[in-house]
Amino acid sequence: MKALIIVADDSYKGEYSMAVQGLRQLGMEVSTGLVSKNANVNFDLDFTEGFSEDSLSEYDVIVFIGGYWAYYAVVGKEAPGRVKPMVNRDVFEKILIHAVNSGKKVVLPLALPAYAAKLGLLKGKRATVYPTTDLISILKNNGVEFANEDFVVDGNVVSMKRMSVEALSKALSK
Asked: What distance in Å separates the CA atoms of residue 128 and residue 76, rounded to the nearest whole number?
């Protein structure tokens, strides 16, 4: 099996490396695609300028890494600090929408379930999210049933409260 990790922001310590480790432990071949010009990870695919739907066709699992950028983007607040992720938000959203609608297994940790909910991708589904009042409210306000669990698998979408090797392995083994 092949997995693609889409990285928007790698600032949340360990989020990316735990995803790589968890996928490799499951025996998957892992590739990385970037939608940010200043993410600091080795990558195979550069989506900073655009994206073709064909580029996802060979992957069975798509994991999204949003870091702190995803939280601030979804709640509509300005991120603190001097270095702002240079995320191509349009491409990120197109990849997210295509991945969820394609039926491929999609992994959304931390704030990304709320981001997907705002795009209408999780309406009528159960999901978890990093447990802050604003992120839980975004889920509920967009027709998503919040579940206070480490991870939730609903159809092809895996939402995760936090990224961990153990939770990712369990979720993808279901």
From this structure: 20
| Span 83-101, pLDDT tens digits | 677 899 999 999 999 999 9
Mean pLDDT over 63-84 rounds to 87
Q: Which two three-digit tokens encode residue 85?
A: 């992720």
Q: Is 161 left (phi over 0), alpha (psi -120 to 50) or beta?
A: alpha
Q: Tokens representing 10?
A: 């790698």
By the 8 A CB rule, do 135 and 129 touch?
yes
All structural domains of the chain, each given as residue ranges with its CATH number in brackets, are 2-173 (3.40.50.880)
pTM listed for this prediction: 0.95
Residue whose C-alpha is closest to residue 150's, from 132, 163, 137, 140 = 163
